[in-house]
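Protein modeling request. Please complete all fields; requests missing the sequence field cannot be processed.
Requester role: graduate student
Desired output: 3D structure, token encoding
Chains: 1
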Amino acid sequence: MRFRHIRILTGILLVCLLFTAGPAGAAGRIEAEKAFVEAQKALASGDNVSAEKHLMKALQSDASFTSAIWQLSQIYEKRGKLEYARELILRGLNQDPQAAWAREKLSQLERILTRKLLNEAESYMSAGSYEMAVPKLSLYLGIKPHDPIPLEMLGRCHLSLGNLQTSKEYLIQVIQRDPSNRDITILLDAVDDRISRSSIDATIGRARTVLADYVPENREKAESALQDVLKIDPGNKWAKEKLEELVLISRQKENLADEGAKQAREVIEKGIDAVKTMDNPIPRTVSILKSNMTVGMLLIAIVLLVLNLRKKSRLRSFPLQGSLNLIPILDIVSLLNGNLKTGRLQLTFNRGRGEIFFEKGEIVHSRFKSFDGKTAFHRLMEMKSGKFVFFNHLPNIKHTISEPLSLLLLSMKSMEQSVTHREKQQGVTR
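Delivered output (430 residues):
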């Protein structure tokens, strides 16, 4: 008997729908109405899942079918899917703005939904799951865009997530809605301070990266990176010190170049003077030398240059000092070797002090802590940071190194390879 009543009711409903469809009784509306009727059957038998499927099918056939919209929103509301129910009611009101009951239902749903969203967001924030709270609060704002509470909560969430600029934007909106909120003003100042500090840290990080790979050819790039730090933080002590070191190294290289050019000019002038002072009636050997003036001047220049260099090297210090952070120790050793320098290179680190002794550019001794000779040299060459000073004086020391610099560097590579090979063997054994 019950099913016969259902069939009669369904038939009546279908006839009513066909009459009210009017010009819209196209294929889409007909399919939608059939699906709607099947949904009523499912609801009558208590099968809400099937009813939902039929109603969704009806809306796929005719998106403007308000009867299916209203009924599907009621199903979602009963199942606790308030967000979906709200969206459907909004969609139905767009089709039928005069539906007063739907507006009342929408207001009721939004009160329940906003309270639910706020409680869920607070729970997520209490648990430290700020990324889960953000979508809940964003949905809340979609319902109540002028409420400062979710705006403040979003600002705090993004602050905890490290999204400083986004946090600032939300907090500014809170101040615009509630200018007297002193707590938000203080929080906004703290966010501004963190944004400024973050910018400084990022700029310093870029400068450190440039200096870590510093070579003389990149001097302008390094100076520019340090100047960027000082533009943001004029009192930055680290940037000032590094900039001063770069300037000092540049001046030292310029002094070396000027010194070499001056010595060359002095030698040539002395050679010319020596040739000019030769008298006309001279011995046969001098006459031959004068006839080949270019060769004679060259020989005199070489002799005087060697004597002059040896004399000056004994009388004053070689002006070379600075930081290993800017000039690698290998470059310093190569520079002293190439210039045939004699003296003592003093290296200072956090872990102690070491020395490398040069004689005519070649290394003759080295010491570091309890190590001497090649072992000390190898350990010093591994240092990446510290200070260096070269003194142009070689004390009386025991010569513990006899190999030229090229062989010393090769021995370092072979030692590294043997250590790597031994570590690989130990790894296989394990």
